[in-house]
């Protein structure tokens, strides 16, 4: 069928994978990218994300704990890849500023951006330089940042290509982009066969679902080089049963990645990718 054009290849032919309410997750028949139809616009998303992150202090701290393992491994990866140097680090989708907090302790000069007003106010009260605007409203300078990070952000963007082009512009030559995205489609396909209902795509919050292959494609098309995808830790979500599932599959993914000499990436688990500006 003919749908809205795929953001990766520009083709408009796709097949439906799953419907969630009035939203339809499609897979492009040309490049296999998975995306949401219809695509929400920027105004809808800015309003939607005002209540997306937790506002209750207990839930905020639980979110900090949930992401702590990923943050630790991400900083270790940046330390190794950036050869123990430090510079300006910009976290897009910084939320309440917990990754900024960890990076600052490691010596980075940290900056953040998020659409959620209450989250950025929380981060500001803790002394972090964060802004509550879209990436394009701030008008950053060319070659401004040494490292840019995006944790669970790329899948939320209506036009990821446009954002990555802007990120490429504001990164210094040789600078690093580290992003983390979910890979939900393999799990959704299994649950569909088993006829188990689910809303794993989290529509309309998630607009794309990136496999390692499509992540590499979209980064390479914007000029990034030395693209490497790895497991990058696991999250600790709540309630407890979700945490157990996440830990089990996260550790399984890490084990399979290790014994395969860093070649096998378990489908269905979130992954981190590092890319360099040429």
Strands in their spatial order, largest beta sheet: 6-5-4-7-8-11-10
What is the domain tally?
A: 1
What is the share of helical residues? Answer: 25-40%
> What is the tally of helical segments?
9
> What proportion strand?
15-25%
CATH topology: Rossmann fold
Description:
The chain has 278 residues and is an alpha/beta fold. The chain has one domain: Vaccinia Virus protein VP39 (Rossmann fold). Helices cover 37% and strands 23% of the residues. The chain is built from 9 helices and 11 strands. It has helices at residues 42-48, 57-81, 98-105, 117-125, 135-138, 160-170, 185-193, 212-221, 240-259, and strands at residues 14-20, 23-28, 34-37, 88-92, 109-113, 130-131, 145-151, 171-181, 208-209, 224-230, 271-277. The chain has a 7-stranded mixed beta sheet, with helices on both faces. Strands 1-2-3-9 form a 4-stranded antiparallel beta sheet, covered by helices on one side. Strand 5, helix 4 (117-125) and strand 6 (130-131) form a beta-alpha-beta unit. Helix 2 packs across helix 3 (98-105). The longest helix has 25 residues, at 57-81.
List the helices and strands and how they pair.
Blueprint: E1 14-20, E2 23-28, E3 34-37, H1 42-48, H2 57-81, E4 88-92, H3 98-105, E5 109-113, H4 117-125, E6 130-131, H5 135-138, E7 145-151, H6 160-170, E8 171-181, H7 185-193, E9 208-209, H8 212-221, E10 224-230, H9 240-259, E11 271-277
Parallel strand pairs: 4-5, 4-7, 5-6, 7-8
Antiparallel strand pairs: 1-2, 2-3, 3-9, 8-11, 10-11
């Amino acid at each position: 069928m003919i749908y809205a054009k795929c953001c990766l290849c520009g083709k408009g032919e796709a097949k439906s994978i799953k419907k969630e309410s009035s939203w339809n997750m499609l897979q492009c028949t040309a490049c296999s990218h998975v995306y949401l139809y219809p695509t929400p616009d920027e105004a809808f998303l800015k309003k939607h994300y005002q209540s997306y992150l937790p506002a209750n202090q207990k839930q905020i701290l639980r979110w900090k704990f949930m992401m702590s393992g990923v943050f630790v491994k991400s900083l270790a990866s940046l330390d190794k890849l950036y050869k123990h140097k430090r510079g300006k680090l910009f976290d897009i989708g910084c939320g309440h500023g917990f990754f900024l907090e960890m990076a600052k302790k490691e010596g980075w000069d940290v900056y953040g951006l998020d659409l959620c007003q209450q989250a950025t106010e929380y981060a500001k009260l803790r002394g972090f330089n964060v802004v509550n605007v879209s990436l394009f409203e701030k008008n950053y300078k060319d070659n401004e940042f040494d490292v840019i990070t995006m944790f669970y952000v790329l899948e939320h963007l209506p036009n990821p290509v446009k954002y990555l082009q802007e990120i490429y512009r504001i990164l210094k030559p040789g600078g690093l982009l580290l992003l983390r995205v979910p890979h939900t489609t393999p799990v959704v396909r299994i649950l569909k066969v088993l006829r188990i209902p689910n809303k794993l795509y989290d529509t309309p919050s998630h607009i794309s679902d990136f496999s390692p292959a499509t992540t590499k494609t979209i980064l390479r098309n914007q000029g990034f080089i030395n693209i490497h995808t790895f497991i990058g830790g696991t999250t600790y979500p709540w309630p407890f049963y979700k945490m157990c599932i996440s830990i089990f599959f996260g550790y399984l993914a890490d084990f399979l990645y290790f014994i395969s000499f860093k070649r096998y990436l378990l489908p269905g688990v979130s992954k981190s990718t590092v890319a360099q500006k040429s």
